Amino acid sequence: METKKLVQTAMFTALVLLATVVFKIQTPVIGYIHLGDAFVLLAGIILGPLSGGLAAGLGSALADFVGGYLIWCPGTFIIKFLTAFTAAKLFHGLSRFYNKSGCHLSQSVASGIAGESLMVLGYFLYNILVVMFGNGSFSADGFSESVIVSTVEIPFNIIQGAAGIAIGTVLLPIFNKIAKRINGQVMV
């Protein structure tokens, strides 16, 4: 990895961490809503699927670690990596549809929806595991209870994802200009 890309990956890791830790609201059941998803999406789109996914996953997992949500760290790393990876792949794939590498609102929103949908599903599934392990109940009744508890978190994850898409879409042109100055080219 070249030095500029490494520094940009570290910068986005820090931005994801800060936006997740500083701007968070506790949810009624287990988790919290935060603004880090805007930077998760931006990391993927600006840095590309692998570097962006790494920054998103690592920054989000570090936020869980710092916040005392240790059991969430492995799941968060994978889920946020895949969120950024998916958003980046779709965003850059849609560039071919538009026949150029410009930034289109529909391109940003569509890639954000794809990435954040994966986030909502990923946390739903991981939440089921966390609740089952937390209760020590691996029976059919324990699974049913875990599904019910995990379902309660879905609307909060949707709100977080929607906020991430909106904020990320607004910030994308700004970050694109910054990337252009740093790299001498438009990143997206």
Q: What can you see in these coordinates?
A:
This protein is mostly helical and 188 residues long. The protein has six helices and two strands, in the order αββααααα. It has helices at 3-22, 36-47, 49-66, 73-98, 105-135, 140-183, and strands spanning 24-26, 32-34. The chain has a two-stranded antiparallel sheet with strand order 1-2. A hairpin with a 5-residue loop joins β1 (24-26) and β2. α1 (3-22) runs antiparallel to α2 (36-47), α4 packs antiparallel against α5 (105-135) and α5 packs antiparallel against α6. The longest helix is centred in the C-terminal third of the chain and has 44 residues, at 140-183. It is elongated, with a radius of gyration of 17 Å. The mean pLDDT is 90.
Shape: elongated
Uncertain stretches of 5 or more adjacent residues: none
Gyration radius from CA atoms, angstroms: 17 Å
Please count the beta strands (DSSP E, at least 2 residues each): 2
Oligomer: single chain
| Structural class determined from secondary elements | mainly alpha
Mean pLDDT: 90
One letter per element, helices H and strands E, the order comes to HEEHHHHH
Q: Biggest sheet: strands side by side, in what order? A: 1-2
**Biggest pleated sheet:** 2 strands, antiparallel
How much strand content do the residues show?
under 5%
Spatial gap, N to C terminus: 19 Å
Give the % helix: over 70%
How many separate helices? 6
